[in-house]
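Q: Can someone sanity-check these two? First one:
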Amino acid sequence: MVKRAKAGKGNRGDLSRTAAATRCRFLPLHLALEGYLALHFGGPSIAWDEWSRQAVRQGLSPRAEDAWLGHEVRGLTDALRVFEIHPGQCGVMVYAADSLAAAFVVPHPDDYRALHPTLLVDLYGELVHQYAHFGAPVPEFEARIRDGRHMNTLADLRAAARAQERAWSDTHEAVLSRQLLSTSYAFERAYRMGPFELHRFLPPFHRGAGAEEQHIGELINDHKGRTAYLKTFRLSDAQIRRGYLLTRLAAHDWHLGRTAQKLGIGYEELIRRIRAAGFASLLNAHAVAGHVAGRSGHAAADASPQRTDETKET
């Protein structure tokens, strides 16, 4: 999805060919989605009995995830038409029902003005689509300035307005965008061009309280670490679960027994989760059935002597 554009053909001169050779083209968000869909694509490196031959030879088959175009997200078209583009604006954070849907950053205000409509042809996750349909209306934001009796000059009014802006900014960073900004991501460099690097990133796929909002995305930064481009995609709960399961399996070399033990669940429960996540084709049905039957047989054998002793005592 990311490649250097080939130099143009024809009589447009050396300048055109040089410019074409130093341009990078890629489709919005496809880099991030590729990174998520190809998560641990190689499958098990050791041919465990439970895994099918297909999984060992080919790894995970190409996965599919649902996504919606921006014009299919209820209200987004009207929002982009009505919301004002501010002087100097280089990006936007899109919220649905007070929940962060996506972040989009470009290097220059002229770039943003040109690319603002492209948010309608970009991709959004299942959760964003649902929130736009079923979320409650967002309350209006109002600026509240202290008692006017203390406003004697325009400088007082300006100071009060700036204080309100700071309060909004603090609330946004502490509440609305906290999980996007405070999460620790795994970055993978996909391309380098001069002083710029193109990365895709994945969240830690944490489960439990306080980890309900997680994003994947792509980023371009310069040699000083400054962001030149950013776009994110919010994952649904089901997508987080699949990422979490694949990450845990890969961490234990796809050994089902060790993975189940680390997760604190039984072997059968791990098999159920793998199937529920849509990865049933990776399992060797006969080996899994034999393993489960063997575990049941061992359990019965372990319990039999105890029952015999109890019968004798009775």
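And here is the second, same format, sequence then tokens:
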Amino acid sequence: MNSNKFFNKLADFLILLPIFWSFTGLFHLYNGDKILVVLTLISALASVIKYKKSAIVINIKSKYVWLMYSLLFISITADILNLYNPINIRAIAILCVFLTFLPCQLITRKVLIFSCFIGCINALFFVVHFTYIDPVNRGFWPINAIPFATYICFISAIVFILLLTSKTVKEKFALTLTLIISIMSLAITETRGALVALLPTLISIYFYYAYQRKTLKKSIVISLISITLIFTAIYPIIKDRIIQTQQEITQIDDGNTDTSIGLRLNFWIAGINLIEQSPFVGYGQNYYSQLNQLAKEKVIIQAAANYKPPHFHNQFIDIAVKCGLFGLAFLLVLIFIPIFFVRNKSSLNAICIYSFISILILSGLTDVPFFHKQIFIIYFLCIGIFLSREKFES
């Protein structure tokens, strides 16, 4: 009997391995997605051995799973036809296999809390190591600091929602500690765009629950005190970044756009001009000569053209430049369609999905989250597991 119990727990652990790895090692190693391939196959095998075809029968009816397979088909077709392909085949294939074989009853509250906790511990260790122990320029981390910070935002949103819906002191303590760790990690990355994405999302979630519970006035006071305390605690960490931002804004006002923020403005201006020149077809990856032409016409500075950016530091401008307005329309449908798959629009699962979409859109204003395969995986994985939870609870 004990032996059966052990093997059942082992099977469930093996099935959940891709989730645990996606919350940790996927962002710790440059090629973490290659290891995820192996873990996903192990997960699928363990699922078939323990649950036979029951998980497959349920999941194959999911509109979201079929959406993932549609993306896989589009990605493979684009590669065969040698077209520009913004969808990483390995990433979408991993999602298809995992979500097909995942028994939705395994995504419990405890699993979510554990996944977020190890994810936050991993994030703190990662940023402390590369910032203080073995200092490395943020651009040379195993994964760039900006997508890494976006990953922390996703975890922080889940933790915050679980905390607001927690009913036990033990759970509240664990979640509060996890949230503090995640905010510290985010502050150390010194990523401005991630803070712009996370703070409005968390504030919106907080006031939504306050409105639901009719504690809006009390919540405003608590939120002001909390924001003041958090800002006071992290100010020494982000002080230099704040000063740098102020200096860059001053330089832009003086006409110097050869700064971090200034270059982004140039990329956005260039992107908008390129969209106007080729609104429907797009340029794919063949836009560098156009950047030089825009520099000659004094539309952007030469430094921006010489930079040869792999993307335009804005998810929506970037996809419109590379795939045209049809590509942009497809991206917007892809972002918002999970909302229509949710049955209970006010459940914990629904609020988590809304928060992921909010973070993705806000972070996409200054970065290209889907350009990074790790963010692509964690985003669609999180959407998938919360839709699975919603289906199981229904």
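A (reply): Looked at the second one. The two ends are 32 Å apart (CA to CA). The CA atoms of residues 74 and 80 lie 10 Å apart.
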